[in-house]
Amino acid sequence: MSKTEAAAAAATPASHLSPLASRDAFSVVIPRIGAPLAGGVAHGIVFKDDGAPDYILISGPIAPKAMKWDDAMKWAASLGEGWALPTRQELRVQICNAQKEFNNDWFWSCEPYAGDESYAWCQGFTDGHQYGSHKDYKLRARAVRRLSI
Known about the structure:
2 domains
């Protein structure tokens, strides 16, 4: 793409592009944080290990009550295709972009704690730390889905 073509693409109003339409080979237009998207709300981009964008993280409903880890995993999956508990990395995106939506609670990750299968990772939305918590403890859960970029 020439500099003239790149300038023209950059000048194209975002309203004329679909939420994921490419402006050029190096960027995409994404919805703002908190915008409705794919049955949830956009909470940011998750990046690959090499720093390239991987997907848009969409946060869905919060479970109606605190629950054990196994129950939280089943609850998220019961919401339908593509819904699951977030990874540790996705929880970090949520705390950075939407902390107030989580009411200073502790939320489950989908990731078991290495070295002790009776524990799983969780995210504190009060202090920002991630810890291993016993799977029988009752914590909150919020489902996520991923929209490839």
